Amino acid sequence: MRVLRSDWSGGSDTRACSGENHHGTIQRDHYGIEKMAIHWASDIQLPGLLFVPKTSNGQRYLHLHGEGKHVDASKGGPIEELVLRGGTVLAVDLRGIGETKTTDRDVMISYLLGKSLVGMRSEDVLIAARVLSEWKKQINLPKCI
């Protein structure tokens, strides 16, 4: 698993993979899928899948789905369509969606903190977009050993 650390002021920094966090890379015919987590604000972790074509056209896409990143990640799905055309796609689960889904805990926590869940998810989108925009154009898969 690639672990990225990001903050509002300094940008993204790729950190080394640790054994217990390594979920690896899935290799498909014309692209690879890297399992990753984006960490920010010291306690927020967004699970993601980075789809990297063997030959990139330089385009990047941030893919969000209300039920989770897994919904469109299968072979023949909409993400694969973008990757086969040469696009790099980052699919993430925002807080309270997909792998991060809990009952109504996130809504209650945001209420108790005086924050909007929509606002918190908007922050997640901005961070994920920033990580994707700073990603190098070509990645030699697999990255984590």
Task: Sum this structure up briefly.
This protein is of the alpha/beta class and 145 residues long. Helices cover 23% and strands 30% of the residues.
Blueprint of the fold:
Elements: E1 2-7, E2 11-15, E3 25-28, E4 31-40, E5 44-53, E6 60-63, H1 78-84, E7 88-92, H2 105-113, H3 117-134
Parallel strand pairs: 1-4, 6-7
Antiparallel strand pairs: 1-2, 3-4, 4-5, 5-7
Describe this entry's structure for a reader:
With 145 residues, the protein is α/β, with parallel strands linked by helices. Helix content is 23%, strand content 30%. The protein contains 3 helices and 7 strands; from the N terminus they run ββββββαβαα. The chain has helices at 78-84, 105-113, 117-134; strands at residues 2-7, 11-15, 25-28, 31-40, 44-53, 60-63, 88-92. Strands 1, 2, 3, 4, 5, 6 and 7 form a 7-stranded mixed beta sheet that branches. The chain starts with a strand and ends in an 11-residue tail after the last helix. The relative contact order is 0.20. Residues 1-22 and 137-145 have low confidence and may be disordered.
